[in-house]
Design goal:
The protein is mainly α and about 80 residues long. It is elongated.
């Protein structure tokens, strides 16, 4: 099956996601960010969390800091 029909069906959602800086590859970091959020709310320090998640998900610490920054941003009014 071609991806065009799927993209066309979801074009409004994809446009809004693009407007807020969402990257298609970000979806693979949803669980990682959920773990970060849970650990942060339980009082863990960011440096410790990043170290643990880096090992758990086999992702560089730099990448995790980038994910935290992107996912932690508020949506813009025009995108919602």
């Amino acid at each position: 099956m071609s991806t065009l029909p799927i993209l066309n069906f979801n074009k409004e959602l994809l446009k809004r996601l693009s407007d807020i800086g969402f990257k298609a590859g970000d979806c693979k970091y949803i669980e990682l960010y959920s773990d970060y959020d849970r650990m942060r709310k339980s009082g863990e320090k960011v440096t410790y969390i990043v170290s643990v998640l880096s090992e758990k998900y086999n992702v560089s610490e730099r990448k995790i800091y980038g994910v935290i920054k992107r996912f932690g941003k508020d949506c813009t009014t025009c995108a919602v």
